[in-house]
Amino acid sequence: MQAFSFGELQTAVIMFLLIGFFAFQGARNGFIAELIKAGFIILGVAVGRPALLGDSVVRTLNGIYQALLFLAYGGGKAVLTGDVSPEAFSRAFMRVQAARPLISPDDKLIATFLLMIALIIIGLIAGNKLRSRGGPILGLLLGAFNGLLLAYLFIPLLPRDLPPLPTSPQAARPAILGLLDVFDVIFRIVVLPFAILFGNLGTWSIPILILALLLYVGWRGASSR
Amino acid sequence: MGPIEILFLVIFLFFLFVALVRGYERELGVTTLIFVALFIITFFGQKYVPLALRYLTQLLNRPPFDNRTTQHILSLTFSIFFILVLFSSYAGDTFSFKGKLKRGPNAVVLDLLIGALNGYLVAGSLWYFQDFYEYPFADTGLLILPLRPPAEAFANYLPPYVAPPMFWAGMVMVLMLLRVRK
User: Fold this and answer.
1) What is the ipTM score, two decimals?
2) Are the beta carbons of A113 and A45 closer than 8 angstroms?
């Protein structure tokens, strides 16, 4: 049997704590607040992934920045004074083209990551401001989902001996890999405590546990008709 | 379909929810029949069905099945038998226990415990029928192999691996005693 490492145990504990904390917050804040939180988290995730929204957001921000530079480098003055000569515009364009973009290709990853963090923080603050809206049970479930999403996002980034989540050998199917990783984490959480317990005590402890459970239920909850 | 542990999780969660809806009193009846099925399969089935299969091929005067085909047939036969027993435990007038707890948090805890046990027994047994016969279902392409590390670790704890056949018979007796005790 492959033993679960200490790092995996840490991962599971952190995940439990995150999911539990967010589920508790969700039950307290209600469904609507958690929905807003979930919306911002999902938006943050999309912005954090270049292939989803990251590249578009970077292009848009660079475009806005260049438009502002154009205005600052003489384009605005030319429009205001009525000097709309091609020379004035081309001078401004040349300076804009020579200027460094707001987010260079080297900075793209860190910038989208920071944007993702910012969106998530905005979502958490906005969600916590909207207390007592909607049902607590749905809030709890959605809160747990938010916790799972955040754990899934950030646990691989923790700078310790946390192992990277194993990916499927079917690397040709990248679209489902993220989902598989989430399932993998859930499976580990469900299995890990038992694996540690039975790994130490031996497999014979499972039948004993089953027997104990049935006797407990028989004693506590079930009786003859 | 995907990795087998996902299938396991889905079935496990399904039984957890079913137990929450039906209550532990009714689910204990299902547990009893699962034990019966496990005993029949592991004590008689795995010993006699391969012999019967060999006898049948001789009777029909045809060459014996190759090893992989035999694995397919046995795995499928036991899975279908197990699912039929499971279905019968839910269909019609079901075998159930009478609870004495009022519906509330304590009863919900018992629902979850028995639901988890049933989920483990059902999903674990179906997984076992694949694992024991070297995953014949993977030949269809619906199951992804090799197993990922957590699944490989968990495959050691599938119900028929952790207890001998007589244990399941013993469990049936324990449940029967609980059912009839005054």
Assistant:
1) 0.85
2) no
Look-up of token digits 């670790």 = B153
Residue type, B6: I
Q: Give B54→chain A minimum CA distance, Å.
A: 34
Q: DSSP string of B82-132?
A: HHHHHHHHHSSS---PEE-SPSSHHHHHHHHHHHHHHHHHHHHHHHHHHHT
Residue range(s) defining the domain that contains residue B18: 4-180
The phi and psi torsions of A139 (rounded to 5 degrees) equal: -60, -45
| Domain count across chain B | 1
Dihedral sign of CA atoms B36, B42, B43, B46 in order: positive
Interface test with A, best of B4, B5, B161 (most A CBs within 10 A): B5
Query: Which of A173, A183, A190, A200 to probe the B interface (max B CBs under 10 A)?
Result: A190
- Tell me, yes or no, if A110 comes closer than 8 A to chain B by beta carbon: no
What are the per-10-residue average pLDDT scores of chain B (182 residues)? Answer: 74 86 86 93 92 89 87 93 89 70 74 90 93 87 76 85 91 86 62
- Residue B39 CA, distance from chain mean position: 10
Distance between CA B114 and CA A221 in Å, rounded?
A: 11
